Amino acid sequence: MYGYQGKFLNVDLSAPNTREMPLAEDELKNFIGGAGLAAKMIYGQVKKGMDPLAPENPLVFATGPFTGTTIPMVSRYAVCGISPLTGYWGEATSGGSFPFRLKGSGYDGLLITGKAKNPVYLYIDNGSAQLKDATHLWGKDFYETQKILNDELKDAKMSVAGIGPAGERLVRYSCVMNDRGRAAGRCGLGALMGSKNLKAVVVAGNIKAELADDKKIKKLTKEAQSTVKGNLLTVAFREYGTLMYTDMGMYLGDVPAKYFTKSIFPAEKVTGQALRQAYSVEFAACLGCPVGCGREVKGFRPDLDTVHGPEYETAIAFGPLCMNFDLDSIIQANHLCNANGMDTISAGVSIAYAMYLSEQGVLTRDKAGLDIKWGDAETVLKLLRMIVDQEGIGKLLSQGTLKMAREFGRDPGEAAQVKGMEMPMHDPRAYHGMAISYATGPRGACHLKGDYYNVDLGPPVLELEIFPGERMSAKGNKAASAAKYQSLKDLYDSLTLCKFAPLSVTQISEILSAITGWKYEPKDILAAGDRSVNIKRVINNKLGLTREDDKLPKICLEPLSEGSTAGVVPDMELLLKEYYEHRQWDWETGRPKKEKLIELSLNQAAEDLYGK
Ligand code: SF4
Fold first, then answer.
1. What domains, with CATH codes, occur in the chain?
2. Nearest by Cα to 299 from 279, 284, 326, 318
3. What is the pTM for the complete model shown?
4. Mutate-to-test residue for ligand 1 from 71, 233, 286, 454, highest number of ligand atoms within 8 A of CB
5. Alpha carbon of 306 to ligand 1 centroid (Å)
């Protein structure tokens, strides 16, 4: 097998033991790697009513065939499991150097089950794996943990992924951190790691997976590098990071403010340019990436020299969404989340919802233990610390907006989430292709698989016949195009490839063919993406998901009275009908139709849903 190590490491933390798990060729051909392969592995364990934090819930770390090659923007890995936040399929990806080192350690990924009696960490070095005591690391933040492990293991080429106190305390949106402030952020998979008493995974090694056609990969690498370097966004990302979008996004009505009730705010205060003017900022790149969209704020405070970030999603969630325009507090909030291992999006949305509830007179000073006012930077930081420490109202906020709405007897539509996962910082009223992607995404409100703003603002995806259209309209095959685009972007997390990589589908299929030696055409790329989306859908169906769950929260469907989206809301009924028809999902049950599953070679899933 080319492009793969051909095996996973299976870790049973209860036993405890580790063993090698060979991968089957047909599974790799069909599911490629990363999150798609993880879904195939987890599929058989899924049962309705399962507790995401039970020891038997598997946790998967997975790289893909692109990882570890010379192709730019491929140092990525996926962390997957049933989400402690939503109870449905959970996945998150991250970059840095960890993904390359994980694959270099001799495994394509890790399948982790059970629960350790005491805190442990996993150390894999060039194919040799050990579970080691982590009692001394428990309670430490991620940066301290990383430093202690670096000092202990003294391996300059190792990389650490792990959790902070939020994951240990099972904060439902805690994340898995790695390297310099990189996060597999969404779905609460840090809590899954914490529930297993697994503090960290340390990887090192230089075992290379053989490639089918080295010469072709050299040529394709050069072409890919020139595509990346020639892309206009590359320069903008490097100079200003993802925050370059704030002002343009606000003019388009795409940047939510005041808990999704406004779209106009002083955008110039939260841009990449503002960050660079106020602080000493350097770019940070994942291994092998010529872009470097990451930010590092240097000399932030005497006791805190470097803060990783903030990036767009984080800055908007703690900024305009909370009507907070104090950059200093946004940087601090970002650092608090990184150090403690917490998703900045869900944390920011939960805090903004607390501000909204406070304004409505629901979350009073008596109930909260403090005054919660829009724009109060100190309150944002105080609430974050309360969430991490599970103190007072912080305990409820740590469970996300849906639980908050239920606790206060509010309409669940007021909770800015889909399937329990908080909305990201792109407003569905601004791009109706985003609206349908959010409503139907395998992990809930996900801007990474359905970044349809990139379609409506950018070039077409010619090979898949996806064309830019009127952004605030359901017309022009919008939902069918969004479904195709969602499948394509889903596949990036199987390959594994950064979402910002400006490669064409033809380039992707040629690279995959040259790495694996298996022939992929652009249509096969789409089919593999469809397969990945559908197996995740069946996992969700098995967990109880129906069409009723494919909806946007009411708070994001109220027409705004200002900005470029004033008075416009997506026609969700029309979009959903077209989307279901394109996907061949059953309108009554929300399940993929039997013939669709068979067409995608998901025969077991077809049998599980429909019988033999
Ligand atoms: S664009 Fe950013 S996230 Fe993507 S690989 Fe480069 S540095 Fe990493």
1. 7-204 (3.60.9.10), 255-409 (1.10.569.10), 427-610 (1.10.599.10)
2. 279
3. 0.97
4. 286
5. 19
